[in-house]
Amino acid sequence: MEAELSSVLLELLRCPKPHHAPLSYDRNEGHLTCSECGEVFRVEDGIPVMLVDEELER
User: How far apart are CA 38 and CA 45, in angstroms?
Assistant: First the structure.
């Protein structure tokens, strides 16, 4: 069973790129997407991997 992101954490998370836009969480795909630049960040065992060098290829 995969761990879920809490709604409180999701409200606090922002893209690590300069514009700091909110992120949306795709539970089915297990990743976060920036609403501003479209960068996609994976979530592993309920932990967001938000390092800019670790973003997923679009």
Answer: 22
15-37 as b/e: b if 16+ CB within 10 A:
bbeeeeeebebeeeeebbbbeee
Give mean pLDDT in consecutive 10-residue pieces for the chain, a chain of 58 residues: 76 88 93 92 90 66
Does the global pTM surpass 0.70?
yes
Task: Name the strand (E) or helix (H) holding 7.
Answer: helix 7-12
Sequence-distant (≥ 6) Cβ neighbours of residue 16 within 8 angstroms: 50, 51, 52
